[in-house]
Specification:
The complex is a heterodimer.
Chain A lengths: L4 H9 E4 L5 E4 L2 E4 L5 H9 L10 E4 L16 H17 L2 E3 L9 H7 L8 E4 L13 E4 L2 H10 L1 E4 L3 E8 L8 H12 L7 E6 L1 H5 L2 H9 L8 E4 L3 H7 L8 H14 L9 E6 L6 E3 L7 E3 L12 H14 L14 E4 L1 H4 L2 H11 L9 E4 L4 H9 L2 H7 L3 E2 L20 E4 L15 E4 L2 H10 L5 H4 L3
Parallel strand pairs in A: 3-4, 3-6, 4-5, 6-7, 9-10, 9-12, 10-11, 15-16, 15-18, 16-17, 18-19
Antiparallel strand pairs in A: 1-2, 2-8, 13-14
Helix pairs in contact in A: 2-5, 6-8, 13-15, 13-16
Chain B lengths: L7 E8 L7 H4 L19 H4 L21 E3 L12 H9 L3 E4 L4 H9 L4 E3 L2 H13 L4 E5 L4 E4 L2 E4 L4 H8 L6 H6 L1 H10 L5
Parallel strand pairs in B: 1-2, 2-3, 3-4
Antiparallel strand pairs in B: 1-5, 5-6, 6-7
Chain lengths: 468, 199
């Protein structure tokens, strides 16, 4: 019987059915970071358990690391305690740790693919909701809580209910200046922030077939913003070309066998999906959020909605969003003044994102009064960007070029909005207070649109700002 | 490991209205700079409850009428966003023992059940009716009957939603999965050996 990738990977990793009906699922690869793991190690010690398969867990530090002054001890004693705790836990339990001095540190969802740890057909878990990113490789990857981090450390398994699969086809072509970020913001706008509840999203169609791995990662990354705990793309030649030669990937004859196996993991033609959604690439324009969740989004040329024109269930959140964002219904979003621009995060902090921004801003300058920071997603991305001269381009254009980490996506490090500053951000969440100030305001958009906001000082259409 | 069988939760309720209340709102990221969950209770809904100077804003959780409430009511997609277990941990430590909402985000739901904090759903109209009852009489007792999937308040009984696996886990005292997972270790070894990949 024809099966989807999700079903194949699930079946390969299902250990047994638990008494409550859930599946005990084997987690092939486990990623950890400093924020959601310390309590898990604490519970492990309390229970007198060890890490069952230490080689299947990889650690890095990303959320709390400063992006400018990185000498230790960190100026924030709490952040300093957290990195020390992770270092100790990795040492005590024999876990590979991509530390600050490794050259491999970075946002966990950028490091995994970059090092070739993320591979097709795997189950991957991490105490971080953006673990869905790894689905870009045809892995089943999902975010978990800290108790489940403990479960995975102790048993390499977790208790999970099987999800349904929703196939999302994006066919046709994307217009100029329309990026992967616009595709996922549009999908979330169309299906809602809880449209994916109980589903894994399988993304496909002509647009995804043409997408690079980094574009696929941007889309899969934000599956969780649509309520889907995991999202994936079937592996193909683009996937294999990206992985070939990466540190943790199979080599030599092993490589050929792996590719054969990975290819067979893809969903079979004619397999059944629980739901199918069809979207035309031509229908998507550059998209920006205007509210306090990623589903509150409009095309750049649209006016802000009147709450009463929305479905009844969305009205109260819309009113709350207008109050928080200090925006007015019926007005254009274009022209809204920005105070800060942020390029980075596990959504859009990869090399191709930085290349595109550098290409666009060359010869332009950040508008006076706008604070602009570029935070590479990993030390690997940082090194390449410096070698390629991108960092120089950013500095010349008036951006601050920083060290690798999560930074202003969630502001657990010193990079924060102040007061009600408005930030044009390439990150993934516009929740109230997300960027470090309870009254701070976030507008999500593609890196190119952030670049346009940076040079004009207002929310702009990148297609009009940059003629190339 | 033997855990309590959670067949029902009784207490007073408080309603924090709104749809899509995310885990950043339940526990802002800056309070996750910690290596234990102790002390998270006082930071539940912090930025919703407190002004920049630390004084109180008007908020249901600051309202003396609802002090001591142990059952939280909210809207749809409650707990969306970040997977942080700090969110249900902070609610639990604040004093909540059950949550009733229109729907729950998946990761938040799983994290809450693992703490033994039932999350049950009610249709919107019934949630609104229940919220109206406790607004009028904050001392009204709410019983979340996990076993029978019912919510009872002021003489009225509502049919609540709770998926089979969570229901079973709570009423049999197996809401923390670790014991069951450890029992499966011999089969885990078999699957590990059968996987076509090793890292």
């Amino acid at each position: 019987m024809a099966k989807s990738l999700f079903e194949k990977v699930w079946d390969t990793h299902a250990v047994r059915t638990l008494p409550n009906g859930q599946t005990q699922l084997f987690v092939g690869t486990h990623l950890i970071h400093e924020v959601t793991s310390p309590q898990a190690f604490g519970m492990l010690r309390d229970l007198g358990l060890k890490v069952l398969y230490p080689k299947r867990t990889f650690a890095t530090v990303d959320h709390i690391v400063p992006t400018n002054e990185r000498a230790e001890p960190f100026s924030d004693p709490l952040a300093d305690a957290m990195i020390k705790e992770l270092r100790k836990n990795c040492r005590d339990f024999d876990i590979t740790f991509f530390d600050l001095n490794s050259g491999k540190q970075g946002i966990v969802h950028i490091v995994g693919p970059e090092q070739g740890i993320t591979q097709p057909g795997m189950t991957i878990a991490c105490g971080d909701s953006h673990t869905s990113t790894h689905g870009a490789f045809g892995a089943i990857a999902f975010g978990i809580g800290t108790s489940q981090v403990r479960d995975v450390l102790a048993t390499q398994t977790m208790a999970l209910s099987k999800m349904k699969v929703c196939r999302i086809n994006v066919d046709g072509k994307l217009g100029r200046g329309v990026y992967a970020k616009d595709v996922i913001l549009h999908i979330i706008r169309e299906l809602g922030v809880n449209g994916g509840l109980g589903f894994a999203y399988e993304y496909g169609g002509e647009v995804f077939d043409r997408f690079t791995m980094e574009e696929r990662m941007t889309v899969c990354n934000m599956s969780i913003e649509g309520g889907a705990r995991c999202g994936y793309v079937n592996p193909d030649d683009t996937t294999f070309a990206y992985l070939k030669g990466r540190l943790y990937c199979p080599k030599g004859a092993e490589w050929n066998r792996a590719v054969e196996r990975w290819r067979a993991t893809a969903s079979d033609p004619g397999c059944k999906y629980d739901k199918v959604v069809n979207i035309r690439g031509e229908d998507i324009s550059p998209t920006v959020t205007w509210g306090i969740n990623p589903g509150q989004a409009i095309f750049i040329h649209e006016n802000l909605p009147e709450p009463d024109s929305l479905p009844e269930k969305d009205r109260s959140t819309a009113r709350e969003a207008f109050t928080h964002m200090k925006l007015k219904p019926g007005q254009p979003i274009k022209g809204t003044k920005v105070d800060v621009v942020f390029i980075g995060s596990c959504t859009n902090g990869r090399l191709s994102d930085l290349q595109e921004v550098a290409r666009l801003v060359k010869g332009h300058h950040v508008k006076a009064g706008v604070k602009a920071i570029v935070v590479p997603g990993s030390q690997g991305v940082s090194k390449l960007a410096e070698e390629m001269g991108l960092a120089d381009t950013f500095r010349e254009a008036g951006f601050e070029w920083r060290g690798a980490g999560c930074s202003m996506c969630l502001a657990m490090n010193p990079d924060k909005l102040i007061g009600d500053q408005l930030c044009a951000s390439s990150s993934n969440r516009n929740f109230k207070g997300r960027q470090g100030s309870p009254t701070g305001r976030t507008i999500l958009m593609s890196p190119a649109m952030v670049a346009a906001a940076a040079v004009t000082g207002v929310v702009s259409d990148a297609r009009e700002v940059f003629k190339n | 490991m033997s855990l309590a069988k959670i067949t029902s939760v009784t207490g007073r309720g408080v309603c924090v209205p709104g749809a899509d209340i995310d885990t950043d709102r339940i526990i802002p990221a800056r309070f996750m700079k910690c290596v234990t969950f102790d002390g998270l209770g006082e930071f539940a809904f912090y930025d919703e409850r407190k002004k920049a100077d630390g004084s109180d804003k008007p908020h249901p959780l600051n309202d003396p009428r609802f002090k001591g409430a142990s059952i939280l009511l909210s809207g749809s997609n409650f707990g969306c966003g970040s997977s942080r277990e700090h969110a249900p941990q902070s609610l639990y430590r604040f004093g909540f023992r059950a949550v009733i909402a229109e729907s729950f985000a998946e990761i938040f739901f799983g994290n809450s059940i693992t703490l033994g904090m039932p999350c049950v759903t009610l249709p919107r109209a019934e949630l609104q009716a229940l919220a109206a009852v406790i607004e009028k009489d904050p001392k009204a007792e709410i019983v979340v009957e996990v076993q029978n999937r019912k919510v009872i308040c002021a003489g009225k009984s509502y049919v609540a939603g709770l998926p089979h696996s969570a229901h079973e886990a709570l009423i049999t005292g197996k809401w923390d999965a670790i014991a069951d997972l450890l029992e499966g270790l011999p089969e885990v070894a078999r699957v590990a050996a059968s996987l076509p990949y090793a890292i």
